[in-house]
Design goal:
Distance between the termini: 38 Å
Helix content: 25-40%
CATH topology: Trna Endonuclease, Chain: A, domain 1
Radius of gyration: 16 Å
Strand order of the largest sheet: 1-2-3-6-7-10
Number of domains: 1
Oligomer: single chain
Number of strands: 10
Largest sheet: 6 strands, mixed
Mean pLDDT: 92
């Protein structure tokens, strides 16, 4: 039986397309600065700095979840690389907001603390999933979109 591996390079390319889509949407109202290639921001899980109309800034991490429309869940990454015990973005991201793009469906903006609290509240019922990569696995839990929407800061239908 052949294992289908998560192809980081292919997913990275798809993710960049999702980032461009979110950038276009945000640039209608805000100044958007791409910091995703700057190592310190990468380590902190920050993709963009958004300048609000009053001049204040917030940091965001983009998540492009192509499976969410089909599964009805978003994937909350708990372990990025199992062989090295590297925690996933769900616990390590320092962004002020996460913006989930679910293609052909919606954009959901959440505050990380609220989604983390939801994951903790539901930890007994959430079933951990393993995503095979070459030479390691990524672990995470699928969280119901309906539950995520209840704690969302903003939802934009597409």
């Amino acid at each position: 039986m052949q294992t289908n591996y998560y192809d980081f390079q292919a997913q990275h390319k798809i993710g960049k397309q999702g980032e461009q889509f979110i950038d276009r949407w945000l640039k209608n109202n805000y100044k958007v600065t791409d910091v995703s290639d700057i190592p310190n921001y990468q380590k902190a899980g920050i993709d963009r700095i958004i300048e609000l109309k009053d001049g204040t800034t917030v940091t965001v991490e983009y998540k492009f979840d192509v499976a969410a429309k089909r599964t009805g869940n978003i994937f909350f990454e708990t372990v990025a690389v199992d062989t090295q015990s590297i925690p996933g973005w769900g616990w390590t991201s320092q962004a002020d907001y996460w913006i989930f793009l679910i293609p052909e469906q919606e954009i959901i903006i959440v505050q990380p603390g609220k989604l983390r609290a939801l994951v903790w509240q539901q930890q007994k019922v959430l079933k951990e999933k393993t995503v095979p990569n070459k030479n390691y696995n990524t672990l995470g839990v699928p969280v119901s979109l309906s539950d995520v929407k209840k704690i969302a800061y903003q939802i934009k239908r597409l």
